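Quick one:
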Amino acid sequence: MSTRPPPSPLLPKERTRREILRSAAVGTTVVGISLLGFVPVLRGGEPRLRPPGSLEESAFLAACIKCGQCVQVCPVKAIKLADLTDGFGVGVPHIDARDQACDFSCDAVQCILACPTGALAHSLNKKEEVRMGLARLDRPDACLARQGKGFKGPARGDAFPGIHRYAEVDRWKPIKIADHPYDLELCDLCVRECPIEGAIALEPVSADPADKRRTPVVKQACTGCGMCEMVCPAEPAAIVVDSQRKWGAAS
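Output:
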């Protein structure tokens, strides 16, 4: 009975060519699935916090050309470009506020000025009218202020890489939050570091004057920059930002 001869071993060039073709095929499949929007469906359509002045999500995705200009000009490097898991949103800018909040105190909101298509826009050049979302006390029981507790040390620990421009240190140069420790009798970091005046306040939990407990209350001036979420020492954060949620809308 005849037997087939064993296959000839591939030459190095042939093996490399096959590996390249195989990788290209896999890459094309992944990109195709992502562009068809299947990956976000599997992820449950998780909303992204967009840079200041972003249009409504569908209009934003249509207008954004993924040029990365907003990423380049952000003074605190808060803006990132999404990866393949975002499907139609691949390459589109977003902000993970817990990792690095938007520095809403930057002059003229530079990302908006850098956007060439109007995907990011503001009205009458007023930062107060530029919205990203709205903050919300998500875990009241974890809030130190609601427990009447203070806070001492770096807001997110010594290893946290997030940065912030502290007006009392250097208005123009951001420094690591880890390099700016606190010693607070009552934790008020969300109010203290909010760049928008009147956007959040601590209000008494009870009518008892001896009760030190206070609760963060988000006001209409909130722009959703995420600074409160980034500096919150609770883990996970007690306060979070809901992307593109407007004042008066349900949570």
